[in-house]
Structures are given as C-alpha cells and as structure tokens.
Amino acid sequence: MVGPNGVGKTNLLEALHVGAQGFSPRTRAEPRLVRFGERAARVQLEGTERGSPVETEVTLAPGEGKRLRLNGAALGSAEELRSRLAALVFVPDRLAVVKGGPVVRRAYLDRMLGRVFPSQAALPAEYGRALAQRGEALRRVRADLSTRAAVEPWTERVAELGASLDAARAQLVALLAPGFAVHADALGVSAATFAYEERGLRREDLETRLDRDLERGTTGLGPHLRDVEVRVDDRDLRGFGSQGEQRTAVLALLLAEAAVLAERRGAPPLLLLDDVFSELDAGRRRALLEALPAGGQTLVSATSADALPADAREPALVVTVRRAGDASVAEVA
Q: Over the Cα atoms of the chain, what is R_g?
C-alpha cells in the first residue's frame, strides 16, 4: 500500500485492525474514531480463513456501546472476535511496548495471552476484578466499615488467579523468547532477550503484608505490578536503547508471535505493518520480508514502492492511496 504522507494509509490499516480485532491499535478513546459530524463509524470486512468465508462488522456509536458481528452473529465482546481471528499490527505508536512503562507491557502481554491461549483470554480481566474487590474490602476495613474477615475471601481469590496469570505469562514469554532473539538478530540487533520471571502468588504472602495493604488501601503484591524485560546484553532497551533498537525489538516480537500463532492455529495471522521500512536499510528490509510467515497475508504501507529492496519478490497487490477532497481513496494497481 503506497501513497505520500498524510493521505490516510495509517487510517486504512487502523480500520482493518478494528474490523478484525474490535479495537484500535492507536487509541482507547473510541469516540475519536468517529468522523466529525457523524453519529457512528462502521467497519465491515470480508475474507477467508483456512478456506472458510469470514465476515465481520464493528460499529462504534458514542454513548451506545460497541456492536460486533461475526458471520452475522452478534458477539458479546471484542475478546470473542479476537479469539476467532488473529491480526497483528505494527504502527509507530507501538514503540511504547518497549519505551513505555510497565503497565503498557503488561497490557500488551495480556492481550497476546488471549491470542495465543484463547482459553486464558479472560484470566487478566478476572484477576483485575478480584483485585478491585480486594481493594474495596481493604478500604472498607480502613474506614472502620468492615472487618478483616471480609478481606479473606478476596485474598484467596487474588492469590489463586494471580498465580495462574503469572504462570500463563511465563509460559507465553518462554514460547516467544527464542523467535524474538532470532528475528532481532536478523534485523541487526544481536543478543536480544525477552524474559519474564515467574514468581507466583501465595495467600500466605498476601496475609503477611495485610497491615501494609490496609494502610494503603491496595494490594501491593502480585502480577499487576510485574514487568517483562526487553534487553540487549545487559541493557534495558526502555532506558538504554536507541530508537532503532526499540523499533527492531517491537518488530521482532511481532514476528515471533506471528510464528507461534501460525503453528498453534494452523494458519498465519493477518499482519498490518505501517511505515515499517522507514528506518531500515536494504539488508534489514530484505530480512524482514523473508521473516514474514509463509501462506499468510501481510499489508505493508510505504510512501512508494521503491521502499522494497530491489531484489524482493513482487507484491501480490499494490494499493495506491490518495486524497480526494476530505476523503481517502484506495485504488488497486
């Protein structure tokens, strides 16, 4: 997909992601996805997956909630759509996965958890709800509105779900780490590691620190405070990585996940790569193209077709995006 800057290439990739995954990769403020002056936005996609037809429809209407349909059937949440379809995206905003704070990496890891292990998709939300309930119980005790006994059931629940979430994250990172290192090396960053140390969560540990939790009104131990390490040698890429290294790390993580999904689901995910070539030399562009999963569909945006290495195979389709008044128009070459 080619076209000069500002014509809407990123918006088109964003729309494809909304239609396939039910949310924007660029913003959580969904009313911003609705065009000025309009009451709603709708994305409809048609395609095939493993030979079967697939149709999705996602409607965003501020104040009315999000409506999702898959093959004509209404879905209860975006998680249901993501458990059925796999799509991965790289946009410049995704550098926050490496350069942002721990909360960004935790959220990204937990969304990835649902894609790779669909049966675990609800685990992060369930843990979050139990954590909130324990926090409310702690604050009620602190305000002399309840007794410590009211905290005990939630301590048990938080420990159970927290240990499960911690173990699931560790299993996921162990699956991704080898591919991450290989792809990072191919893209020019050697000795890159992706790591998460499983620590578990025991009820006894939460009970030991109950006085501190009561004082603060929050649970001060558990996977909601953990982080995943993205490093090169002994350097944490968040604080000591160059922009190029951070960009490469995000791409390597995406390629590693794509390979895992292709193996586990029997079909590669849809890949949406925005402005992915702009900071890569010809050799690394070639390495990226060679790493794309075979048999899958990848949409790559660039300002011109010249962004492809000279010896790269011809793309199956070239879409030119241009402006027409206040709208973007996509034309197939």
A: 22
E strand or H helix at 108, and its extent?
Answer: helix 102-116
Lowest-confidence segment of 11-20, 120-129, 287-296, 309-318 by average pLDDT: 309-318
CB neighbour list of residue 144: distance below 8 Å, 6 or more residues apart: none
Question: Each residue of 31-41: pLDDT tens digit?
Answer: 889 988 899 99
* Among candidate residues 307, 284, 300, the one with its CA nearest the CA of residue 187: 284
Query: What pTM did the predictor assign?
Result: 0.90
> Which tokens in the block code for residue 330?
């996509």
Report all structural domains of the chain as residue ranges with CATH numbers, in order of start.
Answer: 98-262 (1.20.1050.90)
Condensed to tens digits (0 to 9), the pLDDT of residues 116-142 reads: 998 998 999 999 999 999 999 999 999
Pick the closest to residue 301 from 94, 92, 152, 129 (CA basis): 92
| DSSP structure string for 41-76 | EEEEEEEEETTEEEEEEEEEETTTEEEEEETTEEES
CA–CA dist 325, 333 (Å, integer): 21
Q: Give exposure, 135-153, as e/b (b: 16+ Cβ within 10 Å).
A: bebbeebeeeeeeeeebbe
Q: How much is the pLDDT for 143? A: 96
Q: With residue 110 as reference, give the H or E element that holds it.
A: helix 102-116
Find, among 229, 286, 285, 298, the residue nearest to 258 by Cα.
Answer: 298
Question: Which token pair is 218?
Answer: 């929050």
DSSP-derived secondary structure for 146-186: S-GGGTHHHHHHHHHHHHHHHHHHHHHHHHHHHHHHHHHHH
- CA gap 299, 41 in Å, rounded: 22
| Angle in degrees, 0-180, between the axes of helices 152-186 and 102-116, rounded to the nearest 10 | 90
